[in-house]
Amino acid sequence: MKFRDMIAMSLSNLFHRRVRTVLTVMGVVIGTCAIIVMLSLGFGMRQSMEDMMKSMGDLTVVTVYGGGGSRGSGNLDDKALKNMQKLPNVTAITPVYYLDPSCVTVSCRKYQFSAMVYGVAMDTLKTFGFQAESGNLPGSDFKKTDILFGSESGYDFMDPKRQNDGMMDRTPDKNGNMPKPFVDLEKDKFTLSVNLPEDSTARKKDVKLNVLGVLAQDYSKNPNPSDCIFMDIDYAKELKAKYNKLNNVKSSESQDSYSQIVIKMDSIEAVPDAVQQITDLGYQSYSMESQRDAMEKQLRTIQMILGGLGAISLLVAALGITNTMVMSIYERTREIGIMKVLGCIVWNIRAMFLVEAGTIGFLGGAAGIGISYGISALLNSLAAKAATSGQEGGIFGMGGNISIIPLWLVFASLVFSTMVGLISGILPANRAMKISALTAIKQE
Amino acid sequence: MDMISIRDIRKVYHIGTEKVVALGRISLSVAQGEICCILGTSGSGKSTLLNVMAGLERPSRGSVIIGGTDVTKYSEKQWALFRQKNIGFIFQSYNLLPTMTAVENVALPLAFRGVAKELRTGKAVKMLRAVRLGDRLLHRPTQMSGGQQQRVGIARAFVARPKLIFADEPTGNLDSKTGQEVMDLMVAMARKYGETLIIVTHDPEIAKYAERIITIHDGCKVSDESNPAAAGKKEEPES
Ligand SMILES: Nc1ncnc2c1ncn2[C@@H]1O[C@H](COP(=O)(O)OP(=O)(O)OP(=O)(O)O)[C@@H](O)[C@H]1O
Ligand SMILES: [Mg+2]
After folding, report:
1. Which residues of B131-145 are buried (b: 16+ CB within 10 A; e: fewer)?
2. Is B46 part of any domain?
3. Chain-centre distance of CA A379, in angstroms?
4. Which GO terms describe its molecular function (chain B) (predicted)?
């Protein structure tokens, strides 16, 4: 028997029992919809998680924290830095040397800024993706007194004679414009001095600063370029040493102890390895990637639960197909017998039943995909409405689609539903195959 | 040459501990082109004999040789393929497929043989015209009378030009006049195409159409005689 004749006979059988076929197909439609919609919610969640992650930080960056004993992390000294420089796949690495606001003061006219200073390897800032709001980021040939202001640091300048109201108010006015700070970071001249003890009589020494530019605000960056100054790490160390000497501070920490070391890897894939090796070296680290990994594992569990719920309804649909086919065999016992007597080989009979069951699965899958797209679009528009009407975007994040159907899922569910149909058809088909021609044509 | 010959066929049914002997040692042969009738009362084993000859029932003992080939030990699949090519069937209750039109029903044995659709439809239409149903081509079984349905059945049996055609009580469900028409048609077709036809019936009137009448009783052959009246009508097959 020709394959196309077999298909034609199967289809015509389905057509002759169209009410039952449609009902059975509907079961598969519901099952397929359940799986696709459930999974699409999972994909939506994943997408918004990834978007959120991207806005929160660079996935290729690993931050290593300095000791302090309590953190259980080793002391970040030059030896540690050397070890970390040796890690494979490192694109850029910078230690961060932190000076707290008590160390130095930056002055401009009568205004002063007790500056938080981050000493960093200035030439790596570009690689780490810092952006300049004005001016330029340093290349490899920077001077010792070159500095970059954090985006908000203009507001930190105040008049020390007016203790309380010397601070600038940082709330925007009616038109949404920020008030101008007392100093102009781009045009004014700034000097830096190391703070002396209050009772000191020594003369303050002012050093002229060379402002390269102002960093753009970026909450995903570490250190955060906001109320602070970025300068070369060696100069920062020098200033700290000077401060300690002038103020008779006996530092317990060694001179080259960094608050953190920031490492940029050449790819996301290199991050887990690097994190592992840093842990092996005895340091604690933080990376968006490991965060993401943990969240992704959680998401996968959620997605599996959602998909499982969908799968249950498809299982019920599969039982529906089997039931329909078994019923159909009871009705067609005589027909099957006649076909056998007329010389239809059993393999053909089996194949016909499998084609019927597979077709039910395929049709259900195809219709299910169409309807799933509808449901998905509906969910997304509802979510968009909820987001714009000021309600919370919820766990799904803002604005993005809460339901995403990837193209591969379309093909996968079509194949899957057809397979489910075929598998549901195996038992009935084998049964049809075993029907005795004689008993079949004897029954009235 | 013998178209079909069976040797010492015995068929015993076991129902629980009881044995029912449906056929006890029957031997017979039917020559190529012969129209033969197996006559017997109800329960005499006619249908069983026919089913054994067609491979629908396995004999308990004995052998079946069709066209020189011993087919006794054929598997189910071998039998199916063999029937496709060599055997046609006419049933008492027509046994047309209810969802198919007359043409599709007649073309079915050809479809099983893998004949392309246009070709088999053409042959089926020709056959239906031969049984004078040219105006009922697209009717379904439920839209036809019993006599018409049986004519579709006859067309279906002849369409693949098998070597052998079996008919089990072909007029059993018809009134005597329609029955006669059907018998006339069937015998005429068999003569025209030179087919070997084996008819099973309990009705001596029907048996008169055959050239040879084999009577069985309680599973045993009691007589085997030629019927000169019918044999006289025999024409040369045109094949
Ligand atoms: N499947 C079976 N199981 C047990 N006994 C059977 C079976 N088929 C037939 N028989 C028995 O075999 C005998 C012959 O049956 P068969 O059907 O061949 O008779 P028949 O001559 O065709 O009768 P009828 O003219 O009524 O159709 C009967 O006694 C019947 O009871
Ligand atoms: Mg019978």
Report:
1. bebeebbebbbeebe
2. yes
3. 22
4. ATP binding; ATP hydrolysis activity; transmembrane transporter activity
Diameter of chain B by CA atoms?
A: 54
Chain A neighbors of B113, CB-CB under 8 A: 1, 343
Whether A39 contacts A303, CB under 8 Å:
yes
pLDDT per residue as tens digits for the range A255-294: 568 888 999 998 888 888 898 888 888 888 888 888 888 8
**Which residues, 6+ apart, have CB-to-CB distance to A235 below 8 Å?**
A119, A144, A145
How close B91 comes to chain A (CA, Å)? 9
B56 in a domain, yes or no? yes
Ligand nearest to the CA of B23: 1
**Residue B136: both structure tokens together:** 């009922």
Per the domain annotation, does B236 fall within a domain? no
Beta-bridge partners for A285: A64
Give the pLDDT of chain A (444 residues) as one tens digit per residue.
Answer: 889 999 999 999 999 999 999 999 999 999 999 999 999 998 888 888 878 877 777 788 898 887 655 455 678 888 888 888 888 889 999 999 988 888 899 998 888 888 899 999 998 988 888 989 888 888 888 888 899 999 888 888 888 777 666 666 777 777 777 778 888 888 889 999 998 887 777 777 888 999 999 999 888 888 888 889 999 999 998 898 888 888 887 766 555 688 889 999 988 888 888 988 888 888 888 888 888 888 888 888 988 898 888 889 889 989 999 999 999 998 889 999 999 999 999 999 999 999 999 999 999 999 999 999 999 999 999 888 877 765 444 444 455 788 999 999 999 999 999 999 999 999 999 999 988 888 888 876
Q: Are strands A207-208 and B35-39 parallel, antiparallel or unpaired?
A: unpaired
Q: Is A345 on the interface with B (CB under 8 A)?
A: yes
Residue B73 lies in a domain: yes
Q: Which residues, including other chains, have CB under 8 Å from residue A245's CB and lie 6 or more apart?
A: none
Domain that residue B23 falls in: 2-231
Nearest alpha carbon to residue A10 among A416, A358, A371: A358
Distance of CA B48 from the midpoint of ligand 2 (Å): 7
A226 contacts: CB under 8 Å, gap ≥ 6: A150, A151, A152, A153, A217
Beta carbons of A13 and B99 less than 8 Å apart: yes
Phi and psi (nearest 5°) for A159? -85, 115
Binding pocket residue ranges, ligand 1, CB within 6 Å:
B 13, 15, 20, 22, 40, 42-48, 202
The residue of A12, A341, A352 whose CB has the most chain B CBs within 10 angstroms, and thus the best one to mutate to test that interface, is A341
Q: How far is B80 from chain A (nearest CA, A)?
A: 4
DSSP state string for A341-403: HTT--HHHHHHHHHHHHHHHHHHHHHHHHHHHHHHHHHHHHHHHHHHHTT---GGG-SSS-S-
Q: How far is the CA of B46 from the centre of ligand 1 (A)?
A: 8
State if pTM tops 0.80. Answer: no
Q: Model ipTM?
A: 0.92
Measured CA to CA, the distance from residue A117 to residue B20 in angstroms comes to 109
Spatial distance between the Cα atoms of A229 and A148, rounded to a whole number of angstroms: 6
For the residues of A228-268, what is the DSSP string, one character each?
SEEEEHHHHHHHHHHHHHHTT---SS-TT--SEEEEEESST
How close is the nearest chain A Cα to the Cα of B89, in Å? 7
Answer for the pair A207, A106: CB distance below 8 angstroms, yes or no.
no
Residue of A334, A338, A343 with shortest CB distance to B80: A343
Nearest to B56 among A9, A12, A438 (CB): A438
Cα(B93) to ligand 1 centroid in Å equals: 17
Q: What is the CATH number of the domain that holds B185?
A: 3.40.50.300
